[in-house]
């Protein structure tokens, strides 16, 4: 009986010991690990930074414009008829007075012969009346009537000749022709467009500018124009004219610039990115565009500043995440006032001083006063070809 009792007690002890170890292993230990992990501070995120730089910028007014021909018209007939001759091709460069189209004028040629005969007869009658008037054998009224008849016949001849001239279409100025819209033998009505003629050198660019910038504008200011057809290339010109009124709907004033276009690379209707170079160069604090966080409450940046040393578990996590020789830093959110933008950089008028380190990548995961780790390898290289804005 004594042995049985000892065996039972031993069995109960081992069962209790195993149950306790299992409860610790599968219940208490996971809870301890979870509590330690929840209390430990996460490692500071890695960010890329750049020092705010002072750069010299010449003030520029950006605008979006459209190219217009120095002179551009649709060649249209003043009278109708069938096309009997096409003397040019589409896209051809022509000089002033170049022969373009002929409209059938056979009826007018017949009328011209008839009117010339009538004019000749009227001249003979006027000469006879003049001789009789000199000799006093005719009344002055007869001479006046013969002179009026002669003048009427001459006017009829001029009228027919003008109609014939209208049926011969010529270029009113030198330029480049567009695509021909009619074919040989086709009937054309008065005012119908046959072909376009554009004078491309020089060429105009029209663009709107806000009324608040009127004091910076004056004729002769330099223009820098970029077009999508020739990326990276800048075409230069000058401000030619400023409109005499401000549009009430948009509060913008229309400005016209003039550019040389000797190679005819710029065409009417092209989209133009215009920058007006206005004012003297000035020093500005510039940052990459990626450093700016835009929101409805204002634009802001994260500035890197020194942080107080950490203690306990947070210090252990920070040491594990950062090199030992790195001084602890944190970020401070600052609201900024921005100026103009140029390519990948933007001018900061207020909020950042030259030399301050600003986070340029990784802002989305940051909170004010959060510790960070500056990592030069966190910077991403932009693609060689960026999507169009």
Summarize it.
The protein is α+β, with helices and mostly antiparallel strands.
Describe the structure.
The protein has 389 residues and is α+β, with helices and mostly antiparallel strands. Among the domains are: 46-57 and 282-378, conserved putative lor/sdh protein from methanococcus maripaludis s2 fold (Beta Barrel), CATH 2.40.420.20; 61-69 and 199-277, Efflux pump adaptor protein, beta barrel domain (Elongation Factor Tu (Ef-tu), domain 3), CATH 2.40.30; 105-166, Helix hairpin bin (Helix Hairpins, Orthogonal Bundle). The protein has helices at 2-39, 106-135, 140-166, 312-321; strands at 46-51, 53-57, 60-75, 81-86, 93-94, 99-103, 168-170, 175-177, 187-188, 195-210, 222-226, 235-246, 252-259, 271-277, 282-288, 300-306, 329-335, 337-342, 345-350, 357-361, 371-374. Strand 18 and strand 19 form a beta hairpin. Helix 2 (106-135) runs antiparallel to helix 3. The longest helix has 38 residues, at 2-39. The chain is elongated. The model is unreliable at 312-325 (pLDDT under 50).
